[in-house]
Amino acid sequence: METTRMEGKGRTALVTGASAGIGRELALVFASHGFDVVLVARREERLEALAQEVQGKYGVKAHVMAADLADPAAPRRIFDEMAARHIPIDALVNNAGYTVPGFFRDTHWADQAALIQVMVTAVAELCHLFGPGMAARGYGRIVNVASLAGHLPGAAGGTLYSASKSFVIKMSESLSLEYQGKNVHVTALCPGFTYSEFHDVAGNRAEVSKFPKALWMEGDVVARQAYDAVMAGVPVIINGRLNNFLAFLARVLPQMRVRAMMARNERNAKVHPRGI
Ligand SMILES: NC(=O)c1ccc[n+]([C@@H]2O[C@H](COP(=O)([O-])OP(=O)(O)OC[C@H]3O[C@@H](n4cnc5c(N)ncnc54)[C@H](OP(=O)(O)O)[C@@H]3O)[C@@H](O)[C@H]2O)c1
User: Fold this and answer.
1) Which one is the CATH code of 2-269: 3.90.1170.50, 3.40.50.720, 3.40.50.1980, 2.40.110.10?
2) Structure confidence at residue 263 (pLDDT)
3) Ligand 1 atom having least distance to the Cα of 193
4) Which end of the chain has fewer CB atoms at under 10 Å, N or C?
5) pLDDT tens, position by position, 88-139
6) pTM of the predicted model, to two decimals?
7) From the CB of 147, is ligand 1 less than 6 Å away?
8) Residue 223 near ligand 1, beta carbon < 6 Å
9) Closest CA to 30 of 68, 69, 57
């Protein structure tokens, strides 16, 4: 157990979207295993507070880097900044994310383009930038936060959310094979409904709160499962038995039927934005 706890000693984990929710919990879990952490998000004061907490609780170093991942220059800037500060990144957690609520036709393209930048391009570019160094040093752990939504058929509303999460799952599977034998593990994390600020940002907290409690998980549980999965080299993890069962149904039932069930549920719940 002690060896597992100190897995991160002398190593550094960079976590995007560490200012809230699942990302904050992921940063805490990596720090609890001895990793120094680099905390990335837009809200710098939140990151500073978490850095203090992490240092006090676990005695590891915590660096803060404010960045807006919607800026196409951000991934390269993060990579260059780590090089300039002589911080090799041993674990990368691509967690930052959100949804653009509403029907595609009613939204502004600038908002959709930003979503693609944050949840597709930045995720891919950060893997592309940091992966080779990990392979060269013989150690790397990459967690790409996807969603149960990436395993379900697309729904009306929140259009690019599910699409981006499917992309992240496929990309992580490919990378996990590409890095086999190099001690670089890549895991797509697929939570279902998880308590965080996600649904407040999406503006659908009231609607999703009507869903049964059994569908919801705590962020710290999701983060611990993510950590164990990436350390074990599991390419895709769906959190929780119920979410696994839902993903299983979506795989084995006739697709026409699954799509009809999704459409009926979303109509009944009046949740147009994709909720997970
Ligand atoms: N909660 C769920 O039910 C659920 C389910 C499945 C998957 N997920 C996924 O889990 C991940 C984390 O979401 P969460 O639930 O923890 O939501 P959250 O509490 O709202 O946290 C989202 C994080 O992403 C960061 N972020 C958003 N836009 C950013 C940008 N342009 N640049 C940099 N950072 C940005 C936010 O930081 P700043 O605002 O400070 O920049 C925040 O730290 C997301 O990828 C989400 O899709 C969530």
Assistant:
1) 3.40.50.720
2) 81
3) 3
4) N
5) 999 999 999 999 999 999 999 999 999 999 999 999 999 999 999 999 999 9
6) 0.95
7) yes
8) no
9) 57
CA 51 to each of CA 67, 85, 136: distance values in angstroms, whole numbers, following the listed order:
16, 17, 29
Whether residue 194 has its Cβ less than 6 Å from ligand 1: yes
Which position among 58, 161, 179, 227 bears the catalytic label? 161
What is the rounded CA–CA span in Å between residue 38 and residue 244? 31
What stretches in the chain show pLDDT beneath 50?
1-3, 271-273
Active-site residue, 98 included? no
Atom index in ligand 1 nearest the CA of residue 216 equals 3
The verdict on the CB of residue 97 being under 6 Å from ligand 1 is yes
Residue 33 C-alpha from the chain's centroid: 19
